Amino acid sequence: MNTSDPVAGLDRRERGNIVVVGSANMDLVVHAARLPTSGETLLGGGFETCPGGKGANQAIAAARLGASVAMVGCVGDDAFGATLLNGLASDRIDTAHMQRLKAVPSGIAMITVAADGANTIVVAPGANVRLTPELVDAAADLIANAGMLVCQLEVPVDAVRRAVDVAVRHGTAVLLNPAPAQPLPDDLYAQVDFLIVNETEAQALTGIAVSDIAAAREAADALRRKGARTVIVTLGAGGVWYSGPEGESHMTAPRVDAVDTTGAGDTFAGGFAAARVRGAGLSDAIAFAQRAAALSVMKKGAQSSIPMRAEVDAHLPAA
């Protein structure tokens, strides 16, 4: 972790360059009037396949929201894999370090979306679990010369740790979205410049039920004590609580009519990263990310809903 502001000011690197180490999945989406209860068979409505995966979603969000982006990860040598790579390339994301593995299925996510926009997601990681520290090492120069490294936990933690180690050695800022949440060693927290968690992830990592702003503050403080430099707790329609060296505050969320919340958190993470590497201060970067996420929930799909930077600037005022 850097001891000074990890992205502000002049630097030898070209700012705007983001490397995402993470997952790419094909989302299999069923729409229903509501989410099923345990053991219930529920008749749904429309079905669609949509490119997704937290890594790919965040990469595409960062690219559409103003950054130059490269991605490191794995897909299968199947039709889903080809579609996923083509989707990344169509957003001008560098896929030179996306491995296409033979005889391995691409990752998939089974998603149910209710009429009110709520969703449930179950992921079969497929090729994503084949991302190794050695494959990350092959992209070390890319990470070393980036403005920010962005990681999640849908790929093996060993690969994430290797990427973070490379970033820290070379002064590259580290953003970690620990999703799906799992126990993490304190030495990894101590390498993270920006830790972005939602209520569920914050509770899983701290044991604190994040039901309001006070609880979000308590969880953020606990995560900072573990070593994370700046913690951002996203609260959906309840806004964002952040805490770090630049201060702490609650920021309200833009009011919109949600259609599908799938990918909103990824849009937030990618938008925040894109804003930070172009020099935005912490609160301005959060506000930009909130506006991007608000626009995304007004459309269906994880990636198809991610807005372009011009849309964010034009359609929603600052939070």
UniProtKB/TrEMBL annotation:
Q: Entry's SUPFAM superfamilies?
A: Ribokinase-like (SSF53613)
Highest taxon in the source lineage: Bacteria
Location in the cell: Cytoplasm
Q: Which reactions is this enzyme annotated as catalysing?
A: D-ribose + ATP = D-ribose 5-phosphate + ADP + H(+)
Which of this chain's residues are annotated to bind ATP? 198, 234-239, 265-266
Cofactor: record remark? Requires a divalent cation, most likely magnesium in vivo, as an electrophilic catalyst to aid phosphoryl group transfer. It is the chelate of the metal and the nucleotide that is the actual substrate.
Corresponding gene? rbsK
The protein's job, in short, is: Catalyzes the phosphorylation of ribose at O-5 in a reaction requiring ATP and magnesium. The resulting D-ribose-5-phosphate can then be used either for sythesis of nucleotides, histidine, and tryptophan, or as a component of the pentose phosphate pathway.
Instruction: Tell me the lineage of the source organism.
Output: Bacteria, Pseudomonadati, Pseudomonadota, Betaproteobacteria, Burkholderiales
Q: Where is the active site?
A: 266 (proton acceptor)
Question: What is the name attached to this protein's record?
Answer: Ribokinase
Where along the chain is K(+) bound? 260, 262, 296, 299, 301, 305
Arranged from A to Z, the UniProt key words for this protein are: ATP-binding, Carbohydrate metabolism, Cytoplasm, Kinase, Magnesium, Metal-binding, Nucleotide-binding, Potassium, Transferase
Q: Name one GO cellular component term.
A: cytosol
- Pathway it works in: Carbohydrate metabolism; D-ribose degradation; D-ribose 5-phosphate from beta-D-ribopyranose: step 2/2
Top EC group: transferase
Q: How does it assemble?
A: Homodimer.
Family the UniProt entry places it in: Belongs to the carbohydrate kinase PfkB family. Ribokinase subfamily.
Which molecular function term from Gene Ontology is one that the record holds?
A: ATP binding
CC cofactor: Mg(2+)
Q: Which residues form the signal peptide?
A: none
| Biological process according to GO | D-ribose catabolic process
Q: Which residues form the Carbohydrate kinase PfkB domain?
A: 17-307
Instruction: Please tell me whether the keyword Magnesium is annotated for this protein.
Output: yes
Originating organism: Caballeronia arationis
Q: How, per the record, is this protein's activity regulated?
A: Activated by a monovalent cation that binds near, but not in, the active site. The most likely occupant of the site in vivo is potassium. Ion binding induces a conformational change that may alter substrate affinity.
